[in-house]
Write a structure and sequence with these properties.
mainly beta; Neuraminidase; five-stranded mixed β-sheet; 3 helices; 5% helix; globular
């Protein structure tokens, strides 16, 4: 039997949980070149809506706006419930439709985490080992580098990757090494990671196993140690952490909604020297999503991809939407989705 693209198996209670929470799950998979929305069809089944993008990485939803980092662009989308209702291909099917509104041409700088701040879009520029802003005047505007990085060069010296925004400004970042040479972080990849305070340049934690996906929830900082499969909660004042859960696999991409934590899991690349250094069992070679009930630390649901998706970078919950849709700029239908103040229209298609 040949499985269809994005085939998956999942816990029987997962569709019901998403219905109860009135939300969907969004994941980015640069390996498959997709942004994928996972939604409940009913209490027993899920739907998968994939959209193609060129190496999609970090993305963030803020209100009715969504920002996505790709290989050489940053794209801003806006949700319209009205455009969703009248979507020509499937009217009265979707309750959200994210349509592209602005594209910034960043060039190939390997953006990772990205977010809206009070004064615009902030992003992790991994290639140049810096925090930057995106506003269209330049490819990017450098705003901060770790103090041990001595040059602004495209050498990915510390593999800066994760970012936490507090009060509209970057506060914490994660990286894979305290190194100042080209690709130097690879030498200590398994246990050389850092959590750093951007405002004070203070190292909160070091000797971390590939930290990713930091997230603030109820004034507490959670993140993933990908190389050990650990989900941790950080005590910032004491510079310690507590392990919430440990999985036998590579975890990356995380969001928290209500009492539930949603975590992305990736397969281990067979031909990767990086993954070869990790000590997971053969059973760890799966990609999917794990769901933890935070108060009890119990695993309450999971999804495993059987085809197409091998690696996940970002994971975001789409709140108040059990059937979201998104348009890319590859399919020309996005040109028909028009919005003006107070009104929306689906333009008639034209022959170009």
């Amino acid at each position: 039997m040949t499985l269809s693209p994005f085939s998956s198996s999942y816990s029987p209670q997962l569709p019901e949980l998403l219905l109860k929470l009135q939300c969907s799950i969004g994941i980015s998979t640069y390996q498959a070149g997709k942004l994928l929305f996972i939604s409940p069809k009913d209490e027993n089944s899920l739907s998968m809506l994939p959209r193609s993008f060129n190496k999609p990485m970090g993305f963030e939803l803020n209100g009715n706006k969504l920002v996505l980092a790709t290989k050489d662009e940053v794209i801003v989308f806006e949700d319209s419930k009205d455009l969703a209702t009248h979507y020509p291909n499937k009217p009265n099917t979707y309750n959200s439709l994210f349509t592209p509104r602005v594209t910034f041409h960043t060039g190939q700088v390997d953006m990772h985490d990205i977010a809206f701040g009070k004064d615009g879009i902030w992003a992790i520029n991994t290639s140049f080992s810096c925090l930057c802003q995106i506003n269209g005047s330049f490819n990017f505007i450098p705003r901060w580098q770790p103090p041990f990085i001595t040059e602004m060069v495209s050498e990915d010296r510390c593999h800066l990757n994760g970012m936490v925004i507090i009060d509209g400004k970057p506060k914490y970042v994660t990286m894979l090494g305290k190194t100042n040479t080209a690709q130097g972080w690879r030498e200590t990849i398994v246990d050389g990671g850092l959590l750093m305070d951007v405002e004070t340049n203070e190292i909160i934690l070091d000797k971390l196993a590939m930290p990713h996906s930091p997230k603030m929830h109820n004034n507490e900082l959670y993140m993933l140690l990908s190389a050990s499969g650990k989900v941790i909660k950080v005590n910032i004042a004491e510079k310690t952490y507590e392990t919430i859960k440990q999985f036998d696999g590579f975890c990356r991409g995380m969001d928290i909604y209500g009492d539930f934590m949603f975590i992305g899991m990736s397969k281990l690349r067979k031909n990767s020297s990086t993954f070869a250094k990790l000590s997971f069992s053969d059973n760890a070679d799966t990609a999917g999503i794990k769901i933890i009930h935070i108060p009890t630390k119990a695993l309450v649901g999971e999804l495993t991809f059987q085809t197409t998706v091998d690696e996940i970078y970002g994971l975001q919950i789409i709140p108040n939407s059990i059937r979201p849709n998104i348009l890319n700029t590859t399919n020309p239908i996005y040109k028909q989705a028009l919005a003006i103040p107070g009104n929306t229209f689906w333009a008639n298609p034209t022959n170009e």
